[in-house]
From TrEMBL:
Keyword S-adenosyl-L-methionine appears in the UniProt entry: no
Catalytic activity: 2 GTP = 3',3'-c-di-GMP + 2 diphosphate
UniProt entry keywords in alphabetical sequence: Membrane, Transmembrane, Transmembrane helix
Biological process according to GO: cell adhesion involved in single-species biofilm formation; negative regulation of bacterial-type flagellum-dependent cell motility
UniProt-listed PANTHER family: DIGUANYLATE CYCLASE DGCM-RELATED, REGULATORY COMPONENTS OF SENSORY TRANSDUCTION SYSTEM
Lineage start: Bacteria, Pseudomonadati, Pseudomonadota, Alphaproteobacteria, Rhodobacterales
GGDEF domain boundaries: 247-385
InterPro entries per record: Diguanylate_Cyclase, GGDEF_dom, Nucleotide_cyclase, Rev_trsase/Diguanyl_cyclase
Membrane as UniProt keyword: yes
Name of a matching Pfam family: GGDEF
Record's protein name: diguanylate cyclase
Amino acid sequence: MSSSDESLPGKVIWARRGFWARFTPEIERAFRRHYEDDLVQRARWSAVIAAAVMAVYSLLDVFMVEPDILPQFLWVRWLFMILPLLCVSSLSYTTWGARHLQKIAAVASVSSALAVVAMIVIARRNGTPIEYEGIILTTFYFYCCGGLRIRWSLLAGSVAAVSYPVAEYFAGLSAHDLAVRSLFLVSTNVVGLISAALMELAARRGFAQLIALETMSNSDPLTGLLNRRALDRRLPALWENARRNGENVQIAMIDVDYFKQYNDHYGHAGGDDVLRELGALLSDKSHNPQDLAARFGGEEFLCIWSTPPDQSAEARLEEILREVRELARLHEKSPLGRLSVSIGAIELRPDPLLAPDAAGALREADALLYRAKSQGRNQAVLSRARAPQARAEKGVFQTLSLGGN
């Protein structure tokens, strides 16, 4: 991926690049969840296919293996290879199994490796040695097909790489053949490990591209904040989370004062600079996972903060007014002579017993914004619900005016 993908609007992607690439912590957690879901699907079907292949081999055993050791072969193959693989697929459909599938699949893989080693040793001690390539095929399955994370595939491959030469040594394999076969088995693990790492790297690049597409579709290209589409998608979840946790929701509608006059006087490039600066300021005030900052349209912005009941909105609103003032951006067409904003804000706690009314709360914040503008602009008007079920009716809200000065 090109260096241009190092970061996206409002989001840093890569913590480390190269062969062992890693995302930043937040993106890494999302990737792990995404990757685990993909591995569940891969492990589920690859286990079924591998079990079917082993079942076919068990039929071939009937015709190719000496009768003296055939029962042992069939017991080993079905009990320690086919049955564990079928368990992997079956358990993947359960909540517990899907959550622990990597460990379950790793146990099944180790069991399969030891089963192959056992069959090779059984055949050698019976004086009818079979080809050892089965352990190499099994090793490739761990790394490339089994749906295992690298550490689990490496564990299974290492067990095979150690147990096979040890078993063959005690079974009487010549030193020359043992050395050659061990070298091939170790080489198989190295190739498999590189292949698994490359597959994970490809998955990471694909996930980064997915993040880029999602970010572009959900972000305002000028400010990097959420766009209206993303806001509409995320607001219900934030509202429901606040209801469930008994938190307050603070909604602030922010509008740049006399923005049309600013655009006309300083040009659209200057207006874009103002919107970018304000977007960065609001993004900084909305850094928690349960906060939203969006460009609502034109010069209008919307911030939604989910906060504990003891954290009031006044300080944050006053801070926004102060930081806009500290930008010290001239605005000759404003009565103040500098850039300013007006804010309409509402603070309430969603009632867990009532249907959510996030859209109604947005309308109230918008009405308070117009009140702030009608009272002279450069201020915040905050309404706070006195009860969780309060609606925007006369006498239900207390209103505070916070001047920017």
